[in-house]
Each structure stands twice: as C-alpha cells, then as structure tokens.
Design brief:
mainly beta; eight-stranded antiparallel β-sheet; globular; disordered N terminus; about 150 residues; about 50% strand; Secreted protein
C-alpha cells in the first residue's frame, strides 16, 4: 500500500448534497486505486449545519465494473450509522446529512467511511475529525482480492 502526502489540495464546493444548497469540502480527499487506476474518491463535506460523507466513483471504474456496491457510514461509540447509499448504478453517493455532528441518538461522530465493493474486493476510506468538527486525518484500506490496491491523500 502506498501513501502520498497528506496535504489538502483543490478543496471544492458542491451543490447536489441532500438537504443543503451548498456544501464545502472539509479535510483531504482519499483516492482509492486498484490495478493502477483511481476507482473512487471519498471526501467529507460540511454545510447548513450538517456533515456528509461523499463517495464518487470514477467513470473508468464504472465502465470496468458492471456490478458494485457503495455504502457510506458514520461511526461513533461502537455504533455504525449507514448512509443512504447501496447501489449498482450511478457515480455519486452521499450519506444522509448528520445535523450538528450527531445522529438522532445523540452520538457524536469521530469518523466517516466511504466503502466500495466489487468482485471479491472491498476497499474503503476513513476520514477522522476532532471535537470541533474539523477533519484532521484520513486513511484507506482494503480486504479480499483487491489487486494493486493503493490509497493516496490529496
């Protein structure tokens, strides 16, 4: 597994998040690569007092892998909260918005995960943020038969 520098480059703003007219990237982009090409990127966005985990599948990945699934999660206090996305079509996936960093049970979220599975491979990115809500680190990992898996922070 190779890891590039952890600097934040090209942070962007999106207008397609559920429940919010404009969200801004918070923290690094994690690029998930297999067999030498970028399969997906995972980012955390904030806006309208909410947080989102966003997974984008690159067109090359979609064209090579007709069947895949994407799931986005928030994790807190040993409890997974699944986002809105499990699917086999499309390229853009958000979690449901998390208001003020908590779920309806009142847990705060120390990290979010974007996960992509295809064939016998499951890969994911984890974005961690601190108590004031700022993203401060990110990692990638994979399990199963993920040939040539790498992750890079950008």
């Amino acid at each position: 597994m190779a890891v590039a520098g952890a600097t934040v480059a090209h942070a962007d703003t999106r207008t397609d998040a559920p429940g919010c007219a404009s969200v801004s990237q918070d923290g690094p982009t994690v690029k998930l690569e297999v067999s030498g090409y970028t399969a997906a990127t995972v980012r955390k966005y904030v806006g309208c007092g909410q947080k989102y985990v966003f997974t984008y599948l690159e067109p090359t990945f979609v064209s090579r892998n007709g069947t895949y699934s994407v799931r986005n999660y928030f994790y807190a206090t040993n409890t997974w909260t699944a986002g809105d996305t499990t699917g086999t079509t499309g390229q853009k996936f958000y979690t449901a918005p998390v208001v003020n960093g908590t779920d309806p049970s009142g847990f705060s979220y120390p990290f979010g995960i974007g996960q992509v599975a295809f064939g016998g491979c499951t890969m994911w990115a984890q974005i961690v943020w601190d108590e004031d809500g700022a993203a401060n680190s990110a990692t990638g990992a994979a399990s199963g038969s993920c040939a040539g898996f790498e992750y890079h922070l950008a």
